[in-house]
Write a structure and sequence with these properties.
This protein has helices spanning 40-52, 108-120, and strands at 19-21, 34-35, 57-63, 66-72, 79-87, 92-99. The protein is of the alpha+beta class. The relative contact order is 0.25.
């Protein structure tokens, strides 16, 4: 599954190129985390507001430091799982975006996460 474990460490990316994660160590899957300055609850609400602007998203799990969304593609209705973990100790927002099916994703997961980074800009 793509769920984070109980310590809320994100699941590792598979060997396929259809996943990005701030906790990945290899170049193909690694992506920079997002830093936040606000209190975690405020930063989380700002993130949720930004994601509400994106089409075909569904929040499926939430706790005080974790969010999990499903993003559905328009044409083929593929579902991608996107997880966010707020690390208050370092004021770092870690995330993982991965396709549920297939091998390649034409860079969709990376583009999505860079779009979210752009949308939250300095609001966190």
């Amino acid at each position: 599954m793509t769920y984070a474990d109980m310590s809320r460490r994100l699941s590792p990316c598979p060997s396929s190129p259809n996943c990005v994660s701030t906790q990945a160590t290899d170049k193909g899957h690694a992506i920079d985390p997002i830093r936040y300055r606000k209190a975690r609850a405020e930063a989380k609400e700002a993130l949720k507001e930004a994601i509400r602007m994106l089409p075909r998203t569904k929040l499926v799990e939430e706790d005080e430091a974790y969010l999990r969304y499903e993003f559905t593609s328009l044409l083929f209705r593929f579902v991608d799982d996107v997880e966010f973990v707020f690390d208050d100790a370092t004021k770092t927002l870690h995330f993982r975006s991965a396709s549920r099916t297939g091998y390649g994703d034409l860079g969709v997961n990376r583009k999505r996460m860079e779009e979210i980074r752009r949308l939250v800009g300095g609001t966190l």
